[in-house]
Amino acid sequence: MSMLVKKAKASAEAGFTLIELMIVIAIIGILAAIAIPQYEQYIETSKATTITQDFHQLVTQGTAAVAAGAAGQETTIAMPTNYTGVEGCAVFTAGTASATSATPSSVATISVLPNQSVAFKVDYSSCPGSLPTKITNALTAQGISASSNAITANIDQNGAVSYN
Q: Where do the TM regions start and end (predicted)?
């Protein structure tokens, strides 16, 4: 065989066939069809966990603030960083005995005076898809009975916490 024929034959064998490329594309498509829904569920669960943890942290801070108030100290509680719309749908509000319902856009912190009760509410009714259900399930897993798309934690002057 001549050198020219050997070169032509070697260069013809160097690429992929159309069938090989189609098989690879089909495999990538199948993997994407499996992975994308799982990823979306992961994101939704992550959002529900973030909202639940922020609410639990507020309740913990409120309990500590009421305890400090019983000792005669004034305490300031910071609302979650994106308190006007956590994850784009959950809205946190806070109130005390002197300001029973603060609007979420008006306060980034709340002051708890001595002998004062405090309340925190998270409303997640505007969350899309199954996110409200996942938030309710996450709250229930933490021992907080949540039956609607909003929950309020009331912390009285003695530090007792009740949910409604």
A: 12-36
